[in-house]
Amino acid sequence: MVLNCRHVWEYISGYLDNTLDEQTRLDVERHLEHCEICSAILDSTRNILILTADDRVFELPVGYSERLHARLQQTMIESPPPGHNDGGPDDGSVTPDGSSDG
Amino acid sequence: MQSPAKARDEAGLIADVLAGKTDVFHELIRPYERSVYLMALSMLRNEAEAEDVAQEAFIKAYRNLGRFRAEARFSTWLIAIALNEARARLRKKEPGLTDSMDDQDGAVVPAQLTDWREIPSETLERDEIRSIIRRALAALPLPYREVFVLRELEERNVKETAETLGITIASVKMRLHRARMMLQKQLAPQLASTTTTKRRRRFPWF
After folding, report:
1. Nearest 5°: phi and psi at A10?
2. Residue B108: DSSP 8-state
3. What's the pLDDT tens digit per position in B24-63?
4. How much is the mean pLDDT over chain B?
5. Neighbour count for residue A7 (Cβ, 10 Å)
6. Are B40 and B82 spatial neighbours (Cβ–Cβ below 8 Å)?
7. Where residue B103 falls among pLDDT bands split at 50, 70, 90?
8. What's the CATH architecture for B7-93?
9. In terms of Cα–Cα distance, which of B123, B135, B111 is closest to B189?
10. CB nearest B66 (choices: A44, A54, A82)
11. pLDDT exceeds cutoff 80 at A84
12. pLDDT tens digits along A29-49
């Protein structure tokens, strides 16, 4: 089947993820061979996805890890230890199955 | 891509915490500090709030560790808790914002450039480039942003993404595709113009 550009744009993600069926993939490839615009769209999308997923785009705030572990430490001191609480209330609260408080 | 960190005995660490060695929780979560923060940040778009939500998510995970079921990956469970904390925070700020959306029709028309040149990842050393990308991500509508971040940044598969968000696999694919096209549309022209130094003309004598 001969695809026009708009069809090909709808298949870009599937093409990149390799989830298109064999025939569609071949049709897309045939189109890409002669269409400079769609080839550029495919290349730029692939390139942009690599850049976006790079760890350098988002940096952790300075001291984030230290503050997190300090707060967790505080929670561990103040709260009872987590235990198996199958069938407990599903509201995110901790079932008081241990009575050692302090 | 299997990172060496995955080789550790996570189930064993979880069992240790549940058996009372609570300090082991620090070690258990260390590889996921970044992904939990990233999930919160991409939703809230504010560093201080994201850090707060990340802390709350880890505390919730600690308190509810007994409810973790081994069918899921521990990292996916953590990210889901962060997502729910971030959604709750957003709902408080802007009720209605996190309501589910229809995947209505509406194809995204990508930016059509004929002279795209590969942008090397070293370009990310430039603040300007990083900030252009962050802004484009932040500008995605929330339902698309959630899917994009889970799939592309958190490296969750389609099924995990669908389960985390409570949507169908078809919706994940559709939203991911649109998010990618929106980013291409937004970023391709900006990146092309910001990273092009004076281009040498092919026929300088013309």
Report:
1. -70, -20
2. P
3. 999 999 999 999 999 999 999 999 999 999 999 999 999 9
4. 90
5. 15
6. yes
7. low
8. Orthogonal Bundle (1.10)
9. B111
10. A82
11. no
12. 999 999 999 999 999 999 999
Contacting A residues, span 14-53, partner chain B, CB-CB under 8 Å: 14, 16, 19, 36-37, 40-41, 43-45, 47-53
Determine which helix (DSSP H) or strand (DSSP E) holds B160, and give its type and residue range: helix B158-165
The DSSP element (H or E) to which A31 belongs, if any, is helix A22-34
Residue B82 token pair: 């962060």
Which residue pairs from A48-51 have beta carbons closer than 8 angstroms and sit at least 24 positions apart in sequence? A48/B180, A48/B183, A48/B184, A48/B187, A48/B188, A48/B191, A49/A16, A49/B152, A49/B180, A49/B183, A50/B121, A51/B119, A51/B121, A51/B123, A51/B124, A51/B129, A51/B133, A51/B191
Count how many pairs of residues, chain A against chain B, have C-beta atoms within 8 Å. 152
Distance in Å, alpha carbon of A25 to nearest chain B alpha carbon? 16
Give the start-to-end residue ranges of the domains of chain B: 7-93, 121-195
The phi-psi region of residue B104 (left if phi > 0; otherwise alpha if psi is between -120 and 50; otherwise beta) is beta
Q: What is the largest CA-CA distance in chain A?
A: 74
Interface test with B, best of A5, A45, A49, A86 (most B CBs within 10 A): A45
Q: How many CB atoms lie within 10 A of CB A29?
A: 12
Q: Which of A81-95, B105-119, B176-190 has the lowest mean pLDDT?
A: A81-95
Task: Name the architecture of domain B121-195.
Answer: Orthogonal Bundle (1.10)
Identify the three-state secondary structure at position A89: coil
**N-term to C-term CA, chain B:** 50
* The length of chain B, given as a count of residues: 206
| Domain range annotation of chain A | 1-75
Chain B hits for A93, Cβ within 8 Å: 63
